Amino acid sequence: MSNIRQRIIPIFTLILVAATLTVGAMVFRYYMTGFQKKENARIYDRYYMMITDNPKSDFWQSVYLSAQTEAGAKNAYVELLGENLKEDYSCEEQMRIAVSARPDGIIVYADESDRMKELINEASSQGIPVVTLYGDNTQSNRLSFVGVGSYNIGREYGRQIFNIIKEKRRLDFKDSESIAQRKAMQIYVLVNTNVQDTMQNIVISGLQETISQENATDSEFSISIVPVDNTNAFSVEESIRDLFLQENAPDVILCLNELNTICAYQAVVDFNKVGEVNILGYYDSEPIINAIDRNVVYATISIDTRQLGAYCIEALSDYFEFGNTSEYYTADVTLIDQNNVAEYLSGEMEP
Amino acid sequence: MRRFSDLPLRIKLGSVYIGANLAVFIINIFLLAGINSMSREMGMVYQDNRHLNELSDSLDTVQESMTAYLNSKTSDSLEDYYRSAQAFSDLTSDLNEKVTDMSFSRMERNIKLMSQDYLNEVSQTIEAKRGRNVEKYRSYYESATELYKYISSYIKSLNLEQFVSNSEYYTQLWNAFRTFETVSLAVLFTVMAGNVVMISHIARNMTRPLNRLAGSANEVADGNFDVDLPEVASQDEVGIVTNAFNKMVVSIKQYIEQLRESMEKERNMQEKELLMESHLKDAQLKYLQAQINPHFLFNTLNAGAQLAMMEGADRTYEYVQTVADFFRYNVKKQDSSVTVGEEVELVDNYIGILNVRFSGDIHYEKQIDERLMSVEMPSMILQPIVENAVNHGIREMGGTGRIRLSVYRNNSRICISVKDNGAGMSAEEIDALLKGEHASDPHDTEHNGIGMDNVISRLRLFAGIDDVIEMISEGKGKGLEVIIGWDLPSDEH
Predict the structure, then answer these.
(1) What distance in Å separates the CA atoms of residue A265 and residue A269, rounded to the nearest whole number?
(2) Which of A106, A118, B249, B330 is 20 to 30 A distant from B437 in Cα terms?
(3) Which residues of A194-233 are buried (b: 16+ CB within 10 A; e: fewer)?
(4) A188: closest CA among A161, A151, A215?
(5) Which residues of A touch B106 (CB under 8 A)?
(6) CA distance B261 to chain A (A)
(7) How many angstroms separate the CA atoms of A254 and A282, rounded?
(8) Which residues are CB-contacts of B280 (< 8 A; sequence separation ≥ 6)?
(9) How many CB atoms lie within 10 A of CB B258?
């Protein structure tokens, strides 16, 4: 009896010690293997670079995500080039980096500048296919262009402006006694200064054409092309504010990119011009949708960013698979205004 | 194979000590190995950053050496350029070229390819410079410099990003390290506690037989030899000691048994010896008694007395009659107590006989208190005292001896004094006699067989006290008085 008890103590102790050692060793191993796991990364066959002017904007992020998803299915990786760099580079500088880094394909937000043309040509001479995205460089040896129908956008804007004109006619008819008192509607189109952006021009011509077709007389509206200085970081916001400090405040402000829309919206709120100034915005980011809901922005254009991203990858994949691809890809465009803003608000979570 | 418990204590203790130390040592080795691997990991955390810094430095060197060559066109700067370009090329070739989810690896790939492009541009610049193609090398230089800036920026970005991620990793590692520290402390403590339990268990196992042995030894020390002998569980030193103890207890038991037997034997022998002695004495006595049968002697003397009377020899008749009376007393009063008067009568007879034998040399006086004559006393007391006075006092003196017998009362005490004018005794002799140290020759035929020591001891037994006899002598030649006395019985007062 006591003999058994005598044996139990050392056996129990030995088991306890052994268990402690095992647990200790396991804890240690668990920790160490946890640290060495980071090497298991997926390796891709193809590597594309996407170059944009502002990689952090919602618009480009959305396009990039779509492209990335599409590319992932084809075992390719798309890099949003500016994202990892601590310094901000222009599209041309990024293009230079991309060319020297020799990826399998480049997707670039191009313009019609000579430098861009040179770089695109250099890339294609090195066998790197270049897809221009959203902004084209028609003179270059780019593979294809993925963008939106700028003319259609212009027409859409034109219809909206005509709606505004019609509304104004109704009010004028009610309020003013004579035609003389009527004022031509000031339409400001905000354009960027530093790029030769053909898209802007197409939009404007589409706009003008639509308004004239819609029985609007020249005396009823005047379109001003307002250059917005986007050469340095904060100049856009300042330039837009300057507009409101002039005597002739605009009736309609037409913005052709996301940042301008946001700045114009904020300026209208700050200068207490809500209801007087109609903003036609661009892109359907959350603040813009909210602004439509609050009736500060009259309407905005929603671009199918998923299509934009997907087309880029499709173009490149087609090139690698068949040696050629379509030269133009056009993404769908939708107008968002008071009538249909609700569904965008609710569907905000899944663009 | 020997059991552990049978090993010698020295080896047992040693192995326990070594075992405990070994356990702690092994744990420590493991912990050290763990710490070592962790600290190595921690040391490697910023390895990538160091590598990138190296790369960046190397790139700077290439750019500087190129610029220096373009500036001065010295062969030294050209050599510098070749060396730095080679170093840079080596460094970049180590970079990873795979395209993965990890932004680091993609950035590395881009840096690598851009660096190759850059080196290409630089070499073209150098070539153009050597060919003195001014326009060309300028444009190449600008292009290369642009690339240099981009690469620098790329490296910087990667470095920064890796630093952030590595710092995170470092924090994780550090936390893991802390956890590991806690765990290892817990492990160490558990092992230590286990060690303590094991050691105390083993020590208890080793000392338990000792305690049992000590308990048994204590019981044996208390005189209980019938203890349960501690069983020998192991063959170590304790077992050996226990064995020896057990053997010792058994042999002590045997020895005590032997001792008791031999003592018994000795006692029997002594008893036998004493019995033999008493038998011998008895035989001697019987022999003596047989030699002079008192009845025979008494009858013979009576016959002699009658014969003397018939022949008309009155003095002879009287003498023989006295002798007969003397012996009759001996025959009659052998053991029982007698009266003082009878004792005095015996003394009278004895002196009478002696005076016939030694022709009236002894002047005998009596001063007797007649009232004390009926007091009881042991027999054969006065006659030996008187005989002693005659033999040792008067006979050795040579002249006319006097003996005075006095019986008187001193308060509640009866005193009988026998005083002679003989040789006397020294104080030492008196002391020796009273203490019974006076050696008397048992074969002395001159005496009646009853010595003074016998008288004294019988008197003491009778009176129940020691103070029964007094001997007074003023020195050699001045005579001796022997006074015996005892308390009178209460009805005699």
Answers:
(1) 6
(2) B330
(3) ebebebbebbbebbbebbeeeebeeebbebeebebebeee
(4) A161
(5) 47, 77, 79, 84
(6) 44
(7) 8
(8) none
(9) 10
Question: CA–CA distance from A93 to each of A188, B65, B155 (Å)?
Answer: 31, 25, 16
Tokens 């990119």 sit at which residue?
Answer: A257
Q: In terms of Cα–Cα distance, which of A71, A108, A62, A57 is closest to A305? A: A62
Output the six-digit token pair for A83.
């994202």
The arithmetic mean of pLDDT across residues A28-35, rounded, is 71
Radius of gyration of chain B from its Cα atoms, rounded to whole angstroms:
68
Contact B294, B330 (CB under 8 A): yes
pTM (global) more than 0.80 = no
Contact A86 B157 (CB under 8 A): yes
Distance between alpha carbon B134 and the CA centroid of its chain, in Å?
Answer: 113
**Which residues touch A270 (CB under 8 Å, ≥6 apart)?**
A241
The full DSSP string for A193-245 is SSS--HHHHHHHHHHHHHHHHTT--GGGEEEEEEEE--SSTTHHHHHHHHHHH
* Amino acid, res. B379: S
A261 touches A57 (CB < 8 A): no
Tokens encoding A275: 């209801």
Buried b (16+ CB within 10 A) or exposed e, B271-286: eeeeeeeeeeeeeeee
**Burial environment of residue A175 by CB neighbours within 10 A (0 to 12, 13 to 18, 19 or more):** exposed
Q: Which residue among B154, B169, B202 places its CB closest to the CB of A85?
A: B154
The count of other CB atoms within 10 Å of the CB of residue B486 is 21
* pLDDT tens-digit series, residues B176-233: 888 888 888 888 888 888 888 888 888 888 788 888 888 888 888 888 878 777 787 7
pLDDT digits (tens, 9 = 90+) for B303-348: 888 888 898 888 888 888 888 888 777 766 555 678 888 889 888 8
User: A5 at the B interface (CB within 8 A)?
Assistant: no
Average pLDDT value for residue range B349-375: 85
Q: Do A27 and B179 touch (CB under 8 A)?
A: yes
3-state secondary structure of B56: helix
Using the structure block, give the residue that is written with the tokens 């956890």.
Answer: B179
Q: What are phi and psi of B322, to 5 degrees?
A: -60, -45
For residue A83, count CB atoms less than 10 angstroms from its CB and return exposed for 0-12, middle for 13-18, buried for 19 or more: middle
Concatenate the DSSP letters of all residues of A11-61 into one string.
Answer: HHHHHHHHHHHHHHHHHHHHHHHHHGGGG---B-SEEEEEE-S-TTSHHHH
Distances (CA, A) of A314 to A55, A162, A329, A347: 21, 37, 10, 27
Q: Mind listing the pLDDT tens digit for each residue in A57-97?
A: 888 899 999 999 999 999 999 999 888 787 888 888 999 99
With the C-alpha atoms ordered B264, B270, B273, B274, is the resulting torsion angle positive or negative?
Answer: negative
Q: Which residue of B has its CA nearest to A18?
A: B191
- Chain B residue with minimum CA distance to A32: B38
Identity of the residue numbered B378: P
Residue A75 touches partner B, C-beta closer than 8 Å:
no
Whole-angstrom distance, CA of residue A60 vs CA of residue A63: 5
Task: Please state which of the ranges A325-339, B262-276, B333-347 shows the lowest mean pLDDT.
Answer: B333-347
